[in-house]
Amino acid sequence: MMRYHTEPTHTHGTPQKTGILLVNLGTPDAPTPQAVRSYLKEFLSDPRVVEIPRPIWWLILNGIILNTRPRKSAAKYATVWMKEGSPLRVHTEKQAALLQGYLGQRTQAPLVVEFAMRYGNPSIPSVLDKLKRQNCQRILVVPMYPQYAASTTATANDVVFDALKLMRNAPALRTIRNFHDRPGYINALAGNINAYWMKHGRPEKLLMSFHGLPQFTLDKGDPYHCECHKTGRLLAQELGLTPEQYAISFQSRFGKAEWLKPYTTATLKEWGASKIRRVDVVCPGFVADCLETLEEIALEGKEDFLHAGGGEYHYIPCLNESDAWMRALTELVMDNLQGWLIEPDAAELEQSRLRALDLQARQQIRSN
């Protein structure tokens, strides 16, 4: 028998609100082996992330990975941890707060912007509950992944849908699939890079590094690889780059299986060996800086390039809270709120409250 969660108390005359939920990948609560282990267990137990038969993977995960990787990963997190916490959480929280303000300049409809993490805290179910308690009867889910992948966007949606199964009074729901080719997003990326170049000069080559996925995901129909290449092509066009001036690569390879190529590490080593004078690296698949950008690319990537004989190495930060990106995100959300931007009618709300009170009074009289 289904056990629904307890519904929040409803008060007639309360305006309905629309919730906007920004969802990013996740982060441990602290840069410690224990916190990282808990995070990795949740992350790597997701069948959308690791498509290996469960019994085999359970043995590998619990017998090897969770006994060796947490300490190493915790040390890496410690190198990028901010005073306020994990970079990904800090930036995502700021983006949510700014989006609330940007949307408030565009509409008087009652909106609530929150953020959640697919793995770790704040969890998606807890934030959905928070939105419901604020009388959000419509919720727009915004996975903060420009390029769609089953292991990112789809798994975030899985958790949202599972949470709705436990609600007796489920809200209306919309989700955003991707935004890899939206002009606002491309322009924000180009503006961010050009601003960096205005201060630091231009490189001999620009490397666009996207998070990697196993090759079989492409073979089985995941559109991620194609969407990454479209983002790269549109960004290069916006920057006025020739094919010889940039390349697209894939980072964060895990395990021994073949992943999407070319690999970022291999590309940087090759360019270093070729004595490239200066390389700049940008990560267009991330809208907020995190471990994969600040440690893997900014630090490890630099070491790979310089050790191989390369010249100057620059990492260009993610969009984070830049004005151009926040305006692009605002437009993306506004476009997907069509028909939901309903401003409350104070008179109608008061009439609803009075009707409910009148009905309650008549029922009490009959019962007496």
From TrEMBL:
PROSITE patterns: FERROCHELATASE. Pathway: Porphyrin-containing compound metabolism; protoheme biosynthesis; protoheme from protoporphyrin-IX: step 1/1. InterPro entries: Ferrochelatase, Ferrochelatase_AS, Ferrochelatase_C, Ferrochelatase_N. One of its GO terms (biological process) is heme biosynthetic process. It is an enzyme of class 4 (lyase). Its EC number is 4.98.1.1. It catalyses: heme b + 2 H(+) = protoporphyrin IX + Fe(2+); Fe-coproporphyrin III + 2 H(+) = coproporphyrin III + Fe(2+). The keyword Metal-binding applies. CDD domains: Ferrochelatase_C, Ferrochelatase_N. It is found in: Cytoplasm. One of its GO terms (cellular component) is cytoplasm. Keywords: Cytoplasm, Heme biosynthesis, Iron, Lyase, Metal-binding, Porphyrin biosynthesis. GO terms for molecular function: ferrochelatase activity; metal ion binding. It comes from the Bacteria. Pfam families: Ferrochelatase. Catalyzes the ferrous insertion into protoporphyrin IX. Belongs to the ferrochelatase family. NCBIfam families: hemH. This is Ferrochelatase.
